[in-house]
Design a protein that fits this description.
Length: about 300
């Protein structure tokens, strides 16, 4: 309960600070949000990944968590393409919805929410989902984004983007150093900086909440969130339930991670590729607070 309260306090604080920035000479709310996101991506998330993955042992329990993001992306792509053909959506809209609804916010939102709902012990498995989700975004996700925007799609371009991403570097370093114990001084500092993930992320999310002016966008928003928050986790739940013999905790964590809101990094890519930027920002900005309710309901009703 304390963790959930912290999340909502940070959301309110983010909105308040964004309003203050808009009336001050310190910079725009966009600059404020960008600074927070940079701190998360460059410091907090890499420290958390290194801390948890260095201690995490790979086992057969990691197989389904690693596969679950693939299920989400495939199911989303099929539904979005079929809807796009039926409703005659542009290639940019189709690309935006596949990218945003086919990847999950498994780190910025997933880790704080799972920590609040299931405790610290859930984070190890949650990070297997997160890293698979991240890898999928920077491979299949980039291919889809580039195809829909008509930009470069070479293997070297994709690998370069993946290896330059700080959380991926933290994962690689954690795996290389796994055989060696870390001094307490290092683990303590990793834990402290990793603990910044929740407040920094939620303040940034609160600061980004805005009501769009384009009325026609709400239909796309509703379809996108229905896929992301309801249909995708149902697919993961059914496949996990009928095809895999899973530890109940692993099953629950994998399903809840698949039910998280759209991914912030996917939004950045969609905006950069001009794949319906307003829809991308709307799906993330309002999808995140809505997912707090939907994921909590998933946790209470499905398990």
């Amino acid at each position: 309960m304390n963790s959930l309260v912290l999340i909502f306090v940070c959301l309110a604080l983010g909105k308040l600070l964004a309003t203050k920035f808009a009336k001050s000479n310190f910079g725009s709310p966009t600059d404020f949000i960008r600074s927070l996101n940079m701190l998360v991506i460059q410091v907090a998330l890499p420290c958390l990944i290194f801390d948890k993955m260095h201690a995490q042992e790979f086992s057969k329990n990691a197989i389904f968590p690693i596969l679950s993001p693939v299920i989400v992306l495939i199911v989303t792509a099929i539904i979005v393409v079929l809807c796009g053909l039926k409703f005659k959506w542009s290639k940019a809209t189709i690309g935006c919805l596949i990218l945003l609804c086919g990847t999950s916010n498994t780190s910025f939102v997933g880790i704080p929410l799972l920590r609040a709902l299931m405790g610290e012990d859930s984070i190890g498995i949650a990070l297997w989902v997160d890293q698979a989700n991240l890898l999928l975004l920077f491979t299949a996700g980039l291919v889809i984004a580039n195809f829909c925007s008509g930009t470069e799609n070479s293997a070297s371009f994709i690998v370069k983007n993946l290896l330059l991403y700080r959380p991926v570097q933290a994962l690689i370093l954690a795996l290389i150093l796994k055989p060696f114990p870390l001094p307490e001084l290092i683990t303590y500092n990793l834990s402290v900086f990793g603990g910044l993930l929740t407040p920094l992320t939620m303040i940034a999310v609160g600061a980004s909440l805005r009501i769009p002016k384009e009325s026609g966008i709400y239909k796309l928003f509703s379809i996108g969130l229905s896929i992301k928050l309801i249909i995708a986790p149902i697919a993961v739940y059914l496949i996990g339930y009928f095809l895999f013999k899973l530890d109940p905790t692993v099953f629950k964590i994998s399903t809840l991670q698949s039910a998280m809101a759209p991914m912030v990094t996917a939004t950045i890519i969609a905006v950069d590729k001009n794949l319906h930027p307003e829809l991308a920002n709307l799906l993330t900005g309002f999808g995140i607070p809505i997912s707090f309710i939907s994921v909590t309901l998933w946790s209470l009703l499905a398990f």
